[in-house]
Amino acid sequence: MITINKAFQWSPNGYDIERIEAGSHDHLPDRAVAIADDLGVLVPESNTRRKPDGEVSTGKKKNKKKAAE
């Protein structure tokens, strides 16, 4: 399973442009996976976990700023 966290466009033949949507994919061309990795939108397989409701979690936590006292 390949997980992309942001949609991107790529060209399989240097002429046509295809869009890869964000989300989980059973299969993508090797070149598309390499481009996703170069762009930083490929979620490493070890960081991908399924939540009970079926959503994908990357394991990253959002930073919450503390209110100034």
Sheet with the most strands: spatial strand order: 4-1-5
The proportion of residues in beta strands is 25-35%
Which residue ranges are poorly predicted, with pLDDT under 50 across at least 5 consecutive positions? none
Report helical residue fraction: 10-25%
Q: Helix count, per DSSP?
A: 1
For the residues shown, what is the average pLDDT?
A: 79
**N→C terminal distance:** 45 Å
The secondary-structure class comes to: alpha+beta
Radius of gyration: 15 Å
Per DSSP E runs of 2 or more residues, the count of β-strands stands at: 7
**General shape:** globular
The profile of the biggest β sheet is: 3 strands, antiparallel
Helix/strand order = EEEEHEEE
Can you characterise this structure?
The chain is an alpha+beta fold. The chain has a domain at 2-45. Helix content is 14%, strand content 26%. It has one helix spanning 30-39, and strands at 2-4, 8-10, 18-20, 23-25, 42-43, 49-50, 56-57. The strands form three sheets. Strands 4-1-5 form a three-stranded antiparallel beta sheet. β2 and β3 (18-20) form a beta hairpin. The longest helix has 10 residues, at 30-39. The radius of gyration is 15 Å and the shape is globular. The model has no long low-confidence stretch (mean pLDDT 79).
